[in-house]
Design a protein that fits this description.
- The complex is a heterodimer of chains A (276) and B (305).
- Chain A has twelve helices and no strands.
- Chain A has 276 residues and is mostly helical.
- In chain A, helix 3 runs parallel beside helix 6, helix 6 runs antiparallel to helix 10 and helix 11 packs antiparallel against helix 12.
- The longest helix of chain A has 37 residues.
- Chain A starts with a helix and ends with a helix.
- With 305 residues, chain B is mainly α.
- Helices cover 77% and strands 0% of the residues of chain B.
- The longest helix of chain B is centred in the first third of the chain and has 36 residues.
- The two termini of chain B are 19 Å apart.
- Classes of the chains: A mainly alpha (276), B mainly alpha (305).
- The interface between A and B is large, with 49 and 52 residues.
């Protein structure tokens, strides 16, 4: 707890970013137990109502409460983000570590593949997977998770290459510690701060990609809620119900901004600690 | 090399399609003779490696295959839509240059202390706003509230140049917005960094004015880190254009891609993805060459190796 407080004092980005995330996380958790209205209940009598005391952010074209739907959609955003961070750390990091540590032809092959993946914009890669497997929640989460692997692998690889040449690493080899043990007990802990930075930026990226895919109508499909899809629906009612376009866009922006700021704050703190 | 792998990657992703494209076209109870005929026509009776080689050979002749949905050569379809996407991309790139460079310089000059923090926050916000939300906000303000600019519909340049320009203003702003924030952020940080260097102090002691120092000495050095993110900007513009096209219903590559995915028109998806990847690869190459041209240090290093 004390370290957390001193973090906040030293980096405003960290403090602001983490409070934004905490705010949205709170709504996400709450949405499992309670939303002001049932999020998927259409009501023919209450279509496109302006924000009021009853419906804080108004109702959409089917008469559903926008605020409740925003809360439900936050689950999708957090799911996509967490899945991409988990996949990246569990597959990308070991892969990158092994590449950087062992080098050789294995490294060469993997790096070439990562380079090739860099040449295809991640949105297009995701779209490619979707065109093969069809759209929907599972495919969207899967595509974004798989596509996050290069980011983590690259980070882990460059760290491993730097660390490998440090004196104490050479010692661990000399006294005969197995390479698996070196990778996981000696290299991995050193990665923690870079991993945290990568994970926050990766989370933001994943949320943005999901929103983009769903906005195009190719990501999450009804009835699963998604901020991106809510925006594309809102776009049809710009003249009658402009308020529809505010909440979902703001939610995406807040979450992405929160994680970007968090990542920046963590990086600053890491740099400063290194200087001390 | 990268291009070869890209083509391999794109080709094999489309090989893992669940289900048989032939059966999905003819129905489960198709006549076996007809099935074999179509299989042969599509070249699906050959092993994957062989098909890949056929595909690459066709590619080298500029043949990307035939679209299932449109029953037209893929390259022709791309050719039709490409100018619109290109126009949007180039226009957005110009906006980025024209807005972000002066803004970055101005902000570097006039921001010390708490103002710097505020600017940092603003640029972060700019990066976080998704292009399609920006597009909708712009539509709400300039289209719905003020009624100054059209919110959708695309006017071809040949029919009405003025209408074309009017219809491109909002899409361009939406595509370039986040990139502007990125460039401003990098340029400002890089300028402030350079201003603390020894050579700036020397120049000051020689009696040069601040503006001469800034424009003759600092700017050139400050551009280098900005150049390295040019690749990111390029990807940003391309993906941004693809999404924004559908917002403003501009008939470009993005819309074509969307139609292709909806109809599971795989040759078309394949062709467009490959096309964009080739552009990105050449873009990265160009950025490398450009930084070598501007910075003699990089050039020398490359000549040594």
């Amino acid at each position: 707890m004390r370290t957390l407080r001193s973090f906040e004092k030293r980096s405003p980005s960290f403090a602001i970013g983490s409070s934004m995330i905490a705010f949205l996380l709170g709504f996400m958790v709450l949405s499992f137990f309670w939303t002001p209205y049932p999020p998927n209940n259409p009501s023919a009598l209450q279509q496109l109502q302006a924000p009021s005391f009853l419906h804080w952010l108004g109702t959409d074209h089917l008469g559903r409460d926008v605020f409740s739907r925003l809360m439900m959609a936050s689950q999708t955003a957090f799911l996509v983000g967490s899945a991409s961070v988990a996949t990246g750390s569990l597959i990308g990091v070991p892969l990158g570590l092994a590449c950087g540590y062992y080098g050789g032809w294995f490294d060469l092959v993997i790096v070439r593949i990562l380079d090739a993946m860099k040449a295809i914009p991640s949105l297009l890669l995701a779209l490619m997977l979707i065109s093969v497997f069809g759209s929907g929640m599972t495919v969207t989460v899967f595509a974004i998770a798989v596509l996050s692997i290069p980011l983590y692998a690259r980070m882990a690889r460059s760290s491993a290459m730097q660390l490998k040449n440090l004196d104490y690493m050479q010692w661990t080899q000399l006294i005969g510690i197995g390479s698996g043990r070196i990778l996981f007990h000696h290299l991995l802990p050193n990665l923690r701060s870079s991993l945290l930075v990568t994970a926050s930026l990766g989370f933001a990226n994943a949320v943005l990609t999901e929103a983009g895919l769903s906005y195009l109508g190719l990501g999450v499909q009804p009835p699963d809620p998604s901020w991106g899809k809510m925006l594309s629906e809102a776009q049809n009612y710009l003249f009658n119900a402009p308020w529809l376009a505010i909440g979902s866009g703001l939610s995406i922006t807040l979450l992405v901004l929160g994680f970007n700021l968090l990542g920046d704050g963590l990086r600053d703190l890491g740099d400063r600690r290194r200087k001390d | 090399m990268t291009l070869f792998l890209v083509s391999l990657l794109i080709f094999f992703v489309f090989q893992i399609i669940p289900g048989d494209p032939v059966l999905s076209r003819l129905g489960q109870e198709a006549d076996p003779a007809l099935e074999a005929l179509l299989r042969e026509e599509l070249g699906l009776d050959q092993p994957p490696m062989r098909r890949y080689i056929n595909w690459v050979v066709a590619l080298s002749r500029g043949d990307l295959g035939t679209s299932i949905r449109f029953r037209m050569p893929v390259q022709e379809l791309i050719g039709q839509r490409l100018p619109n996407t290109l126009a949007l991309a180039i226009w957005s790139f110009m906006l980025i240059l024209v807005i972000s460079i002066p803004l970055g310089i101005w902000l570097a000059k006039h921001s010390r202390g708490p103002a710097g923090l505020l600017i940092n926050g603003m640029t972060q916000l700019g990066i976080a706003i998704p292009s399609f939300w920006m597009a909708i906000l712009l539509m709400l303000v300039f289209g719905v509230k003020l009624g100054w600019l059209p919110i959708h519909g695309y006017v071809p340049w040949r029919e009405n140049p003025l209408g074309f320009i009017r219809s491109m203003i909002l899409p361009g702003l939406a595509v370039s917005f986040s990139s502007i924030a990125i460039v401003v952020r990098y340029l400002r940080a890089s300028l402030l960094d350079q201003m603390l260097q020894d050579y700036v102090r020397t120049a000051r002691n020689k009696g040069l004015t601040e503006n001469v120092i800034l424009y003759r000495h600092v700017l050139r050095n400050a551009f280098l880190p900005v150049l390295t993110i040019l690749g990111v900007i390029l990807v940003n513009i391309l993906t941004g254009s693809i999404v924004i096209e559908s917002t403003f219903s501009i008939p470009g590559l993005g819309q074509l891609l969307q139609t292709a995915i909806r109809n599971r028109d795989l040759p078309l998806v394949q062709g467009i993805t490959l096309y964009v990847s080739v552009v990105v690869t050449f873009g990265f190459l160009f950025v490398d060459l450009l930084s070598a041209k501007i910075d003699p240090r990089i050039r020398d290093k490359e000549e040594e190796s």
